Amino acid sequence: RASPVEKGAQNAVFKRLSTAGLDPNDDPLLPEYLQMHGYKTHLVGKWHLGQASFDQTPAGQGFDEFFGFFGAFC
């Protein structure tokens, strides 16, 4: 699994129109493991780990619900 440093996110976030982000083929994130055990997962806040494809969004990364915004307000 690629670390944030290998993805280039150690000092910044992925920009709004960038195609960079989490690789959906990497290991599952915590919410995906929780779903495997019957938990519902929710994210409230800011998501800046990629949004170029559905697989990079919170729903594509295992969250059942997401309330927040993509990227940073700058």
Written description of the protein model:
It is a single chain. This protein is of the alpha+beta class. It has 2 helices and 2 strands.
Structure summarized in a few sentences:
The chain is an alpha+beta fold and 74 residues long. The chain is built from 2 helices and 2 strands; from the N terminus they run ααββ.
Topology:
Blueprint: H1 4-7, H2 30-36, E1 42-47, E2 65-70
Parallel strand pairs: 1-2
Q: What is the succession of H and E elements?
A: HHEE
Low-confidence stretches: none
Shape descriptor reads: globular
Q: Level of helix content?
A: 10-25%
User: How many helices does DSSP assign?
Assistant: 2
SS strand fraction = 15-25%
Mean pLDDT: 79
The largest sheet, given as strand count, sense and whether it forms a barrel, is: 2 strands, parallel
Total beta strand runs? 2
Biggest sheet: strands side by side, in what order? 1-2
* Strand-pairing-aware structural class: alpha+beta
Distance between the termini: 30 Å
Q: In angstroms, what is the radius of gyration?
A: 12 Å
